[in-house]
Structures are given as structure tokens and as C-alpha cells.
Amino acid sequence: MTLATGKNGASPSRPPAPPQAYDPLDEIGLIGHSREFQHVRDLIQKLSQFDAPLLVLGETGTGKERAARAIHYLGTRQNHPFIPVNCGALPDTLVENELFGHASGAFTDAKGEQPGLIAQADGGTLFLDEVDTLSPRAQVTLLRFLQDQNYRPLGGKKFIRADVRVMAASNRDLHALVRKGSFRQDLLFRLDILDLVLPPLRQREHDIETLSLHFLERYRLRYNLPTRSLHPETLEWMRTYHWPGNIRELENFLHRACLLADGDQIRVAPLSCSVETGCVSEGTTPGPITNVSFQEAKAQAIEEFEVSYLSALIIETGGNITEAARRSGKERRSLARLLKKHGIDRTQF
């Protein structure tokens, strides 16, 4: 028997594989096809068709800003700016200046006209992240703008009509904050016309491998490394771990593992950290401590606790010092000093 050949005796080439359908949500980074996340992907496609205010809810690290960006870039405003604002970083005394800008001569240092964030987002989307951190004064300022989308720059004489879609996000229960009196109910009504709730990673077990391969490939390309794979035991652990920091924690874990892997396969005894439990390394037992003084052992235990607690806290809050200080009950400056003391870089999370 002879094989069929093509022109000039060459073997006929196989027909090309059908091209994989382009998925804009994969391109944006909203990766996952579990039943729980497919519902989110379908809803994102639907929400992008409308232009009403939107509230995105979900735990820290679930991808709230990424989801908001997807809705923006799939919608009619895609050719206009997407302006993200961390509300926790807005100084209470400068909220109006940050949002509305100022006219020349509005105050001593206002030597020229300065557009605010709303003007920068004109035609596009203004994304208010951590909207729950707004002070009562800032909430009133935002509510006044949302009522008719008119604003006046500080020192300005005329009101300006804004053409922006407002999206907001929070990792807290805003209805509970309303009941406590720390968040305005009328502001919640203005923001929550449409809503999107992102599931935590622990409810997306079937997406963990897909996400992991995506992150490993990202860091392989960034650092020009050989292809990395996950050992089955590592993958099994990843599927059962709680992931309190959600996708952000998963990415951070794989970033580190990809760089420190001894071979082509990532096989680790992971350090399971959370604010509630501290850090516990699988298969390890405490070493002897009676060969040091009580004070030395106590100091060592305190240092280990601080490192594990702060590392998990920063992971869960995505490096947001304001939110980390609120959760830990410490002053912001005091917390920042502790992070510096232990060499914990919040920008790496």
C-alpha cells in the first residue's frame, strides 16, 4: 500500500483545525466556564447593553473592577474612557475637588483650571471602587450629582451636564451598612439600579485549573521561563483550599510558585494562610523552643504571628491599607509601620 501524496509528491497537509471562537471575556481576563461563573459571564453580556447605574458586589479579589471594565468595553461607551476611582483614597476635604475639579482662582493654589474625575470620564464610565468607604459628606456630594448628573466645578459659575455611566463596587453588605446608619439608603437606591454579584473562588472549584494554567502561562512569558505544570497533588490541594483572597490570592500564589519551582512541575507543600487561622504548613510540626529563654520564644512567636496575620490580611484586602486597618482595628499609620518592619510589600498583592 502506498500513501496518497499531493502535488510534487508531497504528502497532503491536514485540513486546518477550525479556529477557536474569539471570546472577548477571555481577552479581558474573565476566565472560567463553571456553571457558577458562566451565569456571571452571561449577565455581563446582558448588562453591557444598558446604560443604567450598576453595583458590582463580591468579596475582595473576585475581580469586581475587571467585570466593570468588561461591561464598559462591551457596551456603547467602549470608545470612551473608563475611569476607576478608589473611594477609600479620596480625602474627605477634597472630594468635590477630585470629582468636579476647580476653576482658576477657586482657592489659593488654584492657578489654573483643573478638570475633575467626572470630566475625565465624559462619554465613558466612572467606576467607584470601595464605595462603602465614602464619608457621610462624600456620600451627600455623590448623591447630589447622581440625581441629575449636573455638577459645578469649585469656583465655577455654571453647572455642567455630565455624560457618564456610573458603576460602583463594594465587598461589604451595603444593606447592612444602611441599617447601621453608615451608608445612605437614598444613595444605595441611586447606585443599585442594576447589580452583579461575583462568586468567591471557593464556589468555582472547576475553574481553578483553568485559571491556574492562565496565570502560569502569563508568568512564563513575562520571565521567559520553561513551561510549568501543576503536580496532581498540588492541584488537588488548590481545589480544596478556601482561598480567602480569591483570584488575587491564587494569582499571587502561582506567581511565587512559578518563580521558585525547582523543575518544570510545581509541587509544593503550600502554606495555608488566613486571618482567622494564621499560617499552617502541611506536614510540619513545631521545632523545639525550650533551648531559648521565655522572652525570646515569646518574641519569636509574636513575630511569626504578625507576619502570617499581616500577609493574609494584605492578600484578603488586595493591598488596600485603609481596608486592612479597618479590619484589623489598627490605625493606618501603625499598620503601615508593621508592614514595613516585616518587609511586607502591599503592592505585590
Residue-averaged pLDDT, rounded? 82
Q: What's the end-to-end separation, in Å?
A: 62 Å
Strand order across the biggest sheet? Answer: 2-5-8-1-9
The CATH H-level superfamily of the largest domain is: P-loop containing nucleotide triphosphate hydrolases
Question: What is the general shape?
Answer: globular
CATH architecture of the largest domain: 3-Layer(aba) Sandwich
Q: How many β-strand runs?
A: 13
Q: β content, as a range?
A: 5-15%
CATH secondary-structure class of the largest domain: Alpha Beta
Kindly give the count of domains.
3
Helix/strand-derived category reads alpha/beta
Spans of at least 5 consecutive residues whose pLDDT stays below 50 are 1-21, 270-290
Evaluate the radius of gyration.
Answer: 25 Å
Predict the CATH topology of the largest domain: Rossmann fold
Number of helices: 14
* Biggest sheet architecture: 5 strands, parallel
Give the H and E element order: HHEHEHEEHEHEEEHHEHEHHEEEHHH
Helix percent reads 40-55%
